[in-house]
Amino acid sequence: MKNVFLIIWVFLAVVCNVNAQQEKGIIGSSNWLNNWTEFKPGKADYGEATQILAGNIAVNTKLVKKEVYIIQGNVYVTNNAILTIEPGTVILGDSESKGTLIVTKGAQLIAEGLETDPIVFTSNKSLKKAGDWGGIVILGDAPINKFGTYSSVNYDLDPSLTTYGGLNPASSSGALKFVRIEYAGKKPRGLENFNALLLGGIGNKTILENIMVSYAAGDAFEVLGGEPIMTKMVSYKSNGIDFKFTLGSQAKIDNSLAVRSSYLTSSSGSRCLDVSSYAKKEEVDFTKKQTLVTATNLTLVNDSENIDADIKAGLVKEAVYVSENSSLVLRKSVISGFNPAVVLDNKIEINDKNLKKIRIEEMYINFCNGNIFTEGSDNNEDLEGYYGNSVFFNLYSKTTNLETFNDFANPKRPDFRLALSKFTASSK
Predict the structure, then answer these.
(1) E-strand stretches of 226-379
(2) Count of structural domains, the chain
(3) Alpha-carbon gap, residue 170 to 235, rounded angstroms
(4) pLDDT of 196-237, one tens digit each?
(5) pLDDT digit string (tens) for 130-185?
(6) 414: in domain
(7) Cβ–Cβ contacts within 10 Å for residue 106, how many?
(8) Which residues form the signal peptide (predicted)?
(9) What is the C-alpha radius of gyration for the chain, rounded to an integer number of angstroms?
(10) 4 located within any domain
């Protein structure tokens, strides 16, 4: 009888240990990327446009699946109108006019696709490339940390229609579910690239689930203030930053994926997660909340056939960057193939008070050229000692992406969940 109890105890211990480890990175009993994502969007044929979207949408409007729409120029949803998009609808962004959809403060975008019938925003070009069209801008009235409560989006947009920020953290700007945004991020003359999806002052009642950005020339997801809750976000081979949070955002992002390529990146490098409180310190009201990002079960991976060589060639930089006066809680996540895994702003003094605002725990850091460093410093003994403490449960390994993930190289249905049965993780 004792032997039976011993066998049961060992079995349960092993199962619990494996399940606990497999909670790192994106999770799910099945691969939630199946059906609605597209990893070869350049080969998809979406047909020719049958309807034009232009100017202002000032009344409630519905886009239907039987039509293919094209966004010409800057299209504003105004006057508290609701733009609803049926599952399976295709919307093309016009390259020549930098087609961009802007949902102004008070208006809503209801784009709720289905797992088997996603909504697609993509380029109108036959030969598609990053930056073919503008992107999607959604603006709300949740708080930001600038003086004066409000701000406006730059680019070549109408400043009277692009204000965001306010006093309502629980506001809703609509819902995006099972949506793909492909080849966005066109660069206006003299300005920075558009971002594929820009969220300014978005309240926590906005639904943001199962959104895939592919081949963005600018940032994939940029969050300016607000209190967004983001689940199952995917950034695939974007040139800019995958997930950027600033202006006092109180954001939660969970079960999300960023896949970078060493050869498709801007001069800022291969950064997946960027957390800051401001671009210009003099514009910030420090009596307000500064940026706090709570990120759980992220998988941040560099897609490279030879990570070592790409790192040595200077093609790879850090996966995560944290600026001064901002906070990050990063838990149960996977970082694979970066140089190093995490970099802290050199303005952050390494002391207990500051490090308590940057919690990095229960991580799986794989094949990175270093773990956590201060920017510009080669000596990270203090940080290694702090985050290497067993209380944080951080694990380290050196395995290829093919070994690390379930089905990394599958061209149609990759599976980026950890395949921990194939190797043994180390805490050193």
Answers:
(1) 229-236, 243-246, 250-261, 273-275, 292-303, 320-322, 327-331, 334-336, 342-344, 358-361, 364-366, 372-374
(2) 1
(3) 26
(4) 999 999 999 999 999 999 999 999 999 999 999 999 999 999
(5) 999 999 999 999 999 999 999 999 888 999 999 999 999 999 999 999 999 999 99
(6) no
(7) 16
(8) 1-20
(9) 22
(10) no
Supply the CATH number for residue 373's domain.
Answer: 2.160.20
Is the alpha carbon torsion for 99, 177, 247, 169 positive or negative?
positive
Q: What SS3 class is residue 324? A: coil
Structure token digits, residue 363: 């991580």
Q: Looking at the domain assignment, is residue 180 inside a domain?
A: yes
Contacts of 312 (CB under 8 A, 6+ apart): none
Examine residue 412 and state whether it is found in any structural domain, yes or no.
no
- The one-letter amino acid code at 53 reads L
> What tokens were used for 246?
């600033």
Measure the CA angle with vertex 23, ends 19 and 24; round to 5°: 130
Residue-number span of the structural domain to which 220 is assigned:
24-390
The answer to whether the beta carbons of residues 372 and 388 sit under 8 Å apart is: no
